[in-house]
Amino acid sequence: MIDKNNIPRHIAIIMDGNGRWAKERGLERTAGHRAGIEAIKEIIKAAADFGIKTITFFTFSTENWSRPKKEVEMLMRTLDNFLSRQLKYLDKNNIRLLVIGRDEPLPKYLQAKLKDVQERTRNNFGLTVVLALNYGARQEILDAARRFASAVAKREAKTEDLDEEGFADYLYTRGLPDPDILIRTSGEIRLSNFLLWQLSYAELYFLKKYWPDFKRGDLEKVIRDYQKRERRFGSVTEA
């Protein structure tokens, strides 16, 4: 059973394997992405039920623009449809949506939809669902450095006062807790330029299952595994 007193506050997920899931079934890659959307819906509901406060999905990276144009266009339309259909559910269940990453060159219709859903759920205080969209961690750190430099130039900040906590305020994830655990599906064992600053002390959980096959029971298993781990943050365990 899950210990309700030791639930990770923030879970980050690299949703990998949609294309391979489809290929193994003789389907187009687009079918894998649609199945991946269904998995997102299930995991959002499970996260809310388990009492998780924040869950971040690596939805589309800055590197993903190199994929075939048709596939990218389908992904954008699928995400737009997902937001339209899920808005009522999110609001009804007190779920807030946040998006991290750069707006450009996302399609204008999708930018408008993302802005609308974020605005309409901004006062919800249950689960926070974060979509990392057109996101890259190195890009995020560079953008944070530029924002800090701009603040110094405007005399709104001083370089000598900057510390780790202060720098985090310039990241896309300002105001969010760092992830307690990262999950990556499909058997790949790497971070792929995802939340490099925020994952410094996160637990890591890799599994071979493709993302469309990741279900509520899998999330529960990850949480149970997390609860068995000892997080020392650089300290030592007393004998």
Which properties best describe this structure?
single chain; 239 residues; globular; alpha/beta; Undecaprenyl pyrophosphate synthetase; 7 helices
**Whole-angstrom Rg:** 18 Å
How confident is the prediction overall: mean pLDDT?
Answer: 95
The coarse silhouette is globular
Given helix and strand content, the structural type is: alpha/beta
CATH class: Alpha Beta
Task: From the 3D structure, determine the CATH topology.
Answer: Undecaprenyl pyrophosphate synthetase
Proportion of helical residues: 40-55%
> What strand order characterises the main sheet?
3-4-2-1-5-6
Helices and strands, with pairings:
Blueprint: E1 10-14, H1 18-24, H2 29-50, E2 54-61, H3 69-92, E3 96-100, H4 108-121, E4 128-135, H5 137-153, H6 164-168, E5 181-184, E6 203-206, H7 216-228
Parallel strand pairs: 1-2, 1-5, 2-4, 3-4, 5-6
Helix pairs in contact: 1-2, 2-3, 3-4
